[in-house]
Every structure is written in C-alpha cells, then in structure tokens.
Amino acid sequence: MSNKVTDIVRSIAEPIVEGLGFELVDVEYVREGSNWYLRVFIDKDGGITVDDCETVTLPLSEKLDEVDPISRSYIFEVSSPGYERPFKTPRDYERAVGKRVRVKFFKAIDGVKTIEGVLDSYDGKSITISTDNDGEKTYPVDAISKINKVIII
Predict the structure, then answer these.
(1) Average of pLDDT values for 125-137?
(2) Fewest CB atoms less than 10 Å from the CB: which of 53, 75, 94, 153?
(3) Global pTM?
C-alpha cells in the first residue's frame, strides 16, 4: 500500500513543490510505532530552511486534504533531506561534484566494498572519484548500492 500512496502523493506534490521553486527529492509513507508518517523531502541550491518547509506545507496540505489519498490518519511533515542523505536522482550526483562522498558497492570492486573521496565527475553512467590513497578511479553507477555526501570534521 505504501508504494501506491507514495506514487499518488508524489504526483500531487511535484507540481506544487516545483511551482514554488524547490525540488521534490523523496516521498516516504511509513509506520513508526502506532503512528503513520507522510514525509515529503524538498531541496534547493544552498539548502532548505524552516521557512522553505512552511512555504510548501500549507498548499501541499490543502491539496492532500482535497484529494484525500490516505484513508487513515497520519502525521504530515515537509523536511530537508539532510546533507548526508543517500543520492536518489541524477541532480543529487551533479550537485555533489567537488564534494566528499562515501560510496558503497553491491559487490567489492578491487577488493573494496566502500570508498570515500571527492566526486570529480558524473556522466549519468559512471562516477569518477579521487581518493587519498588510490588517486582517481571511475566506477559504473549501476554498481553503487548507496552514495552520499559526508561531512568533514
């Protein structure tokens, strides 16, 4: 059921979110304890503020009330996906060029299942990463199980 709900909510949210100048990153409909949560994650260049979340919440909430795609009660949240969130779209890769990333592969490549380095490039089919130890290497995107930016402390 949750996949159908997220598809419906995505189709409702996308024109609203994009019309307000943001990118719809993800929609999540999950049960946590006794509560159901509908979360809509938005982003923009430079990051998301609380005011941005508020800007999207009211019109999207009104449209969800009108269409009523979820029969049970739920808690609705509009949020930033966070700096270290997993990449979901080509735009996530493009925005991360020049940034430090952690990459996990489905299977070990050259004996390594996880690498960390600077994302030098992304062309839709592959990424090139510079690591401190191995220099620059290119990997196919379809070999990646998870990739995300990392905070350097």
Answers:
(1) 91
(2) 153
(3) 0.73
